[in-house]
Design goal:
The chain is α/β, with parallel strands linked by helices. The protein is built from 10 helices and 10 strands. Helix content is 40%, strand content 24%. It starts with a strand and ends with a helix. Bound molecules: adenosine-5'-triphosphate and magnesium ion.
């Protein structure tokens, strides 16, 4: 459903994403992990069609994003890490607005919006301006906006940040259920426990390169003997002795 081929992004002389090849089949919940600055957001923004790749291709449901941007983006919902919402819209208006961008309107959209707001305990806020929303409430509204047009593929950049435990639980259930019904979700996260327990497959990116990918079982079997948890595997791949090295410097 998502296919990346030799996907590369350079900022001037700096290569943020370096020839990534990745496939996420339909119905999969895919976790995209990596340290700060690894290239996750850059990759997800290229998939969402917000950032133009330096080279390589993005295909969504077999449609080449560069050749047919509208066709590819119609299949896609994107939840950015730093979302923009019009402050002067109400929650209900914002969802209506986003659905409208995808040429959807009417009773079905109103019904979905109502159900999404109810799911996230935002019913009482539906007619309040977004400027009065808390950080977590905005996050829940943004998440709702990615579902309101019922896209085949959802790309999410760190969806859990700022959510309370109940909302995080609802989000995980929603992602799982949505992919169980044949939709596809690719999410970046720093919450390894979420990736380990929720995702069908995982890729670990570092320095713009995929260091490992596969199911938890596959990651375990290709990791060094004795490394079983995702945290151990992640830290071994991406460097787990930085704090010790620093204390060596401090003590020197
Ligand atoms: N507009 C830009 N211009 C120059 N460099 C950029 C730009 N955007 C990102 N970068 C660089 O590209 C690299 C990858 O950044 P990116 O935001 O994709 O990382 P990330 O994996 O999402 O990190 P984090 O976990 O901190 O969100 C970083 O080194 C960053 O400094
Ligand atoms: Mg990021």
């Amino acid at each position: 459903m998502i296919r990346l081929t030799q996907l590369t992004k350079r900022y001037g002389g700096f290569t943020a994403v370096n020839g990534i090849n990745l496939e996420v089949p339909r119905g999969e919940l895919f976790g995209f992990l990596g340290p700060n600055g690894a290239g996750k957001t850059t990759t997800l923004r290229m998939i969402a069609g917000i950032l133009r790749p330096t080279s390589g291709t993005v295909e969504i449901g077999g449609i080449d994003l560069a050749a047919d941007p509208i066709g590819a983006k119609t299949k896609l919902g994107f939840i950015p890490d730093r979302p923009f919402i019009y402050e002067k819209l109400t929650g209900a208006e914002f969802l209506r607005f986003v659905a409208g961008l995808y040429d959807q309107e009417g009773a079905v959209v109103e019904h979905r919006a109502r159900e999404l707001l109810a799911l996230f305990d935002l019913e009482e806020w539906r007619d309040e301006l977004v400027e009065s929303y808390s950080h977590g409430m905005r996050q829940k509204l943004i998440i709702s906006s990615a579902f309101v047009h019922r896209p085949e593929v959802i790309v999410v950049d760190e969806p859990m940040v700022g959510l309370d435990p109940k909302a995080a639980r609802i989000l995980k259930d929603l992602f799982r259920e949505y992919t169980n019904r044949g939709h596809t979700i690719m999410m970046s996260t720093h919450t390894l426990e979420v990736a380990e327990t929720l995702c069908d497959r995982i890729a670990i990116i570092q320095g713009g390169v995929i260091r490992a990918s596969g199911s938890m079982q596959e990651l375990r079997s290709s990791a060094e003997a004795g490394l079983t948890g995702l945290e151990q595997i992640f830290l071994r791949l991406t460097g787990d002795d930085a704090a010790r090295a620093l204390v060596d410097v401090l003590d020197a």
